[in-house]
Amino acid sequence: MAMDWRRVAKGEGGRRNRLRRRFVITTPMSTLTVDLGTRSYPIVVESGLLARAAQWAGRPSRVALLSHPRLAALYAAPLLEGLAREGIACSLITVPAGERFKNLKTVARLYDALLDAGLDRRSLLITLGGGVLGDVGGFTAATYLRGIPFIQVPTTLLAQVDASVGGKTGVDLARGKNLVGAFHQPRAVLIDPDTLQTLSARELRSGLAEVIKYGIICDREFFVCIKEEMRRLLRRDPDALSHAILRSCALKAEVVGQDETEQGLRAILNFGHTVGHALESLTGYRRYKHGEAISIGMVSAGLIGEEMGITPKETTGAIADALQEARLPTAFPADISTDAVLQAMQRDKKTVGGRLTFVLASEIGRVSVVKDVTAQAVEAALRRHRRRGGSEP
Ligand code: GLY
Fold this sequence. Notes:
Blueprint: H1 5-9, E1 31-34, E2 41-45, E3 63-67, H2 69-85, E4 90-94, H3 104-116, E5 124-129, H4 131-143, E6 150-154, H5 157-163, E7 168-173, E8 176-183, E9 188-191, H6 201-218, H7 220-234, H8 238-258, H9 273-282, H10 290-307, H11 313-325, H12 338-347, E10 358-363, E11 366-370, H13 375-388
Parallel strand pairs: 2-9, 3-4, 3-5, 5-6, 6-9
Antiparallel strand pairs: 1-2, 7-8, 10-11
Helix pairs in contact: 3-4, 4-5, 5-6, 5-8, 6-7, 6-8, 6-10, 7-8, 9-10, 9-12, 10-11, 10-13
Bound molecules: glycine.
The site of glycine (GLY) has 5 residues, from loops.
């Protein structure tokens, strides 16, 4: 029997969910709230939203719209026209796309561009792009003139369901990813699912890895729904995509509302990321899209959980099946040694005091953060992962 997406989007299902049940989806159904007291903000998911962005801009002295040249050509016009209709002056600033531009050099260039555009403390930055652009733009907003407000308009599925929500902003250093950053919550997250129609199939699948992750970490019913709706999601059915985005954002908003600065609970969002980040870093951020590396990392996490006596075999199997149905890679790369992975994990900022920390699943919909996972357990799990095979990117 097909699941009712709307009921799931409202957060009525999943009795086993460990999160407190206080989803704050208001009417209309397409608006959620990230509940952070005076810094609370809406996440709006609606087709045709770009033209209405000015509604959430407040009364800024000026606006800078930050994007990539290709995305600006596709989507900036309705945003700029909407702002102009409200009499809000706006400058368009573009930066090249790609992780290799997510650095302090780009931020320094952006400070100059914002000064040139005359942005003051009452001004607003709008980021129109994927996760990299949102991170670098958000960090610029967090630090320019000691912080100005910003609005996230994410255009990739990955950014819509994860990166744009929760206020993590930052840039990479030569020695690692996201090593400099700040928590700076946006004023609003405006998601127009129509932007997914121009996304590459590979980017779409990469975002689906994070959608599947939400089911694994805290919502079994959602996990089942995603599997049932996978064909529609891969076909970019607007209704299926909107509901997957809404439910993912509702779960993320709930986690962030309880633990904004990752003192505990928020770490569950890192399921699959310990091995995933190591693979990304060891392949120079070129071989895998973020979601692809996380997909492989989630299978590794299942196997590590098995070694630690926490994850049942069937759970790892269900995780791998869902990822393969989304046509994501699950095979461990043969050319990357376990030693290299262990070393990369030691450099990860999630590793504290040399202790290997993993988010491990005891069943679909329930995970916990396990400190002191032994190197032996990781080695044994990665050995089994290599033998297991799986889908290639
Ligand atoms: N992407 C993980 C987090 O926002 O905490």
